[in-house]
């Protein structure tokens, strides 16, 4: 008996749902591991201490994302070199909110910092879960809104991306 082959569109939607729920599961795992040193704060893209990040950050990290800036002892470093004022104008958002770009990222949203291709974490996450990476997902009711609770996220993921696969 032959199995039914998934269409490319169905397979892609499934990948988007899987990515969305993997990001959510990272947050849930943090809740169950209070001693892990990791925290989840939706209102932070990424905490300056380097231990917390928003839902977009967890989606991107679950997909193998790598931060441009490493935060150690409250210092921001790129390749073990401190971030300087000269680095800041290279991107429109806070430098520590960027990840190293991949070939799958939307090219028109990729920037360059110190010779590295980078993308904002919310653009990467939106692209990974099948949302328009240029749309504003931080507005009220948006998936990346800072006031979202875990319950809000669970409901929004189901509505905007799809049910848990």
Question: Which key phrases capture this entry?
Answer:
about 160 residues; alpha+beta; three-stranded antiparallel beta sheet; 4 helices; 8 strands; globular; disordered N terminus
Shape: globular
Largest sheet: 3 strands, antiparallel
Determine Rg (CA atoms, Å).
17 Å
Strands of the largest sheet, in order across it?
Answer: 3-4-5
Series of H and E elements: HEEHEEEEEEHH
For the terminal residues, how far apart are their CA atoms?
Answer: 24 Å
Mean pLDDT: 82
Structural classification: alpha+beta
**Proportion of residues in helical segments:** 25-40%
Indicate the low-confidence ranges by residue numbers.
1-6
Number of strands: 8
Number of helices: 4
Residue share in β-strands: 5-15%
Give a brief outline of the structure.
With 165 residues, the protein is of the alpha+beta class.
Task: Walk me through this protein's architecture.
The protein has 165 residues and is of the alpha+beta class. It has one domain (8-160). The protein contains four helices and eight strands. A three-stranded antiparallel sheet has the order 3-4-5, with no helix packed on it. A three-stranded antiparallel sheet has the order 6-8-7. The protein has a two-stranded parallel sheet with strand order 1-2. Helix 1 packs across helix 2, helix 1 packs antiparallel against helix 4 and helix 2 (55-62) packs across helix 3 (121-128). Mean pLDDT is 82; it is low at 1-6.
